[in-house]
Design brief:
The longest helix has 27 residues. This protein is about 45% helix and about 0% strand. The chain is flat, with a radius of gyration of 26 Å. The chain is built from 3 helices and no strands. The protein is an all-alpha fold and about 140 residues long. The protein has one domain.
Length: about 140
């Protein structure tokens, strides 16, 4: 009988461990490190992806966005190699299943989700709403 994946982080092989890679997209802080001209304090707004500052302090500048995309492109081979490792391992099948689902979502796209909401109201509720409307309109006159 196979085991399920342990709780917590999945331990990878020592030669393929993306957790120890220097990830340039993960900022040291998720808060902007620019200082406010008015107060002299740290801005504190959330940073944009791949930057160390918020959109008001240059995080949405074209060159910053291009550099973030370059860093993502550089990380893609390591991510593919890690997915390949997870798909090939047999010790924890649930980890392999999660990796397979992630790969399929990226290749084929996620399935469309449809939410249908049906509201039913009783006749007495409708009558109370109409009575309330009449009372409010009479009050406004």
């Amino acid at each position: 009988m196979s085991q399920h994946a342990p709780r917590g982080r999945i331990k990878a092989r020592p030669d393929v461990n993306p957790l120890t890679l220097n990830d340039p997209l993960k900022p040291k802080s998720v808060r902007c490190r620019a200082t406010s001209k008015r107060t002299g304090l740290q801005c504190g707004a959330f940073v944009t992806n791949g930057a160390a500052v918020c959109k008001w302090h240059g995080g949405k500048a074209p060159q910053v966005m291009a550099a973030a995309q370059r860093r993502l492109d550089e990380l893609r081979p390591a991510a593919i190699q890690y997915y390949d490792y997870l798909l090939g391992q047999r010790e924890y099948p649930s980890a392999g299943l999660g990796a397979a689902n992630a790969v399929m979502d990226r290749v084929d796209g996620r399935p469309a989700e449809k939410v249908q909401l049906e509201v039913t109201a009783s006749a007495s509720l409708i009558e109370r709403i109409q009575a309330r409307r009449i009372a409010l309109s009479a009050k406004d006159k």
